[in-house]
Write a structure and sequence with these properties.
39% of the residues lie in helices and 17% in strands. The protein is of the alpha/beta class. Strand 5, helix 4 and strand 6 form a beta-alpha-beta unit. Bound molecules: ligand 4GX. Ligand 4GX binds next to strand 5.
């Protein structure tokens, strides 16, 4: 169970974007919860303003500290009421200036009870409130978006599917790419022939061992070509695979020690 809390100027974007399909059903079933808090609701400005010019000049506007801090405070106090004392709830600031989000991070964060995401807009947020509340600075990759909502949704989706019960079926979320450093192998469904393209023979053979071998070979081939750094990582951790393969090629028994 993870309770996701999102501090944003566009709460409807978060709710809408995560209400469909797998995540939406998980929320309905109560396996995770999702709350989007409108930062604008917390401004003390009588015109509901939440942004202002950056000191020192420069293009664009900055989100001011006050509404962000008060929105966070409201959420943090609600969390503290139902949580054991002393445990600090992580506040993830979604920013291109953070470290890059990855699968292992998703898996770790799925163990938290509550997660607060802070979505910036315009040119970012006044540094002083970030220093006060943010625990983690995280980016989804090296490109610039118009706001933090999409990155927050991306991270929530990846984290949520690692929460037990979210994927409903037997799938533990562990079997795909990245859990084992390899890219996915190609997959085929009916019909057996489509536009004169046949399903690879081995998949129709019923030989499960052969199928697994073929899939691994396909994954390795793709990973080596497209993501050589992932391939190297896998190869380093699976040296025995290459030893076994070499022995097979020489018609040697697996149990033989050398050559
Ligand atoms: N991975 N953006 C945040 C506002 C902003 C501007 C400057 C902090 C500093 C992004 C990404 C991303 C666009 C979200 C700018 N925040 N976030 N937003 N890529 O591009 O995480």
């Amino acid at each position: 169970m993870v309770n996701f809390h999102v501090l944003t100027l566009f709460p409807e974007m978060i709710i809408q974007g995560l209400s469909a399909s797998v995540i939406g059903r998980a929320v309905d079933r109560g396996v995770i919860s999702l709350e989007a808090v409108n930062i604008r609701d917390y401004t003390v400005n009588k015109h509901k303003k939440v942004d202002d010019y950056p000191y020192g000049g420069g293009a664009g506007m900055l989100m001011q500290a006050q509404p962000v801090y008060d929105a966070w405070k409201a959420v943090a106090e609600k969390i503290d009421a139902h949580k054991e004392k002393g445990k600090r709830t992580k506040v993830i600031y979604v920013t291109p200036g953070g470290c890059t989000f990855h699968q292992a991070m998703a898996k770790e964060l799925a163990k938290e009870e509550d997660l607060i995401f802070l979505c910036g807009h315009y040119e970012g947020i006044d540094e002083r409130v970030l220093e006060e509340i943010v625990t983690d600075y995280v980016s989804i990759g090296d490109y610039v978006l118009t706001g933090g909502e999409l990155p927050a949704m991306v991270m929530i989706d990846a984290i949520a599917r690692m929460v037990p019960g979210v994927l409903g079926n037997q799938d533990s979320g562990e079997t795909e790419s990245f859990s084992n450093y390899l890219l996915e192998y190609p997959q085929y469904s009916r019909p057996e022939s489509w536009m004169d393209k046949k399903v690879p023979e081995v998949l129709l053979s019923g030989d499960h061992k052969k199928v697994e071998e073929w899939r691994l070979e396909q994954s390795l081939e793709r990973t080596k070509a497209i993501r050589p750094e992932l391939y190297d990582k896998w190869a380093k951790e699976n040296q025995d695979y290459f030893v076994r393969k070499a022995k097979k090629a020489c018609n040697l028994k697996e149990t033989m020690v050398n050559y």
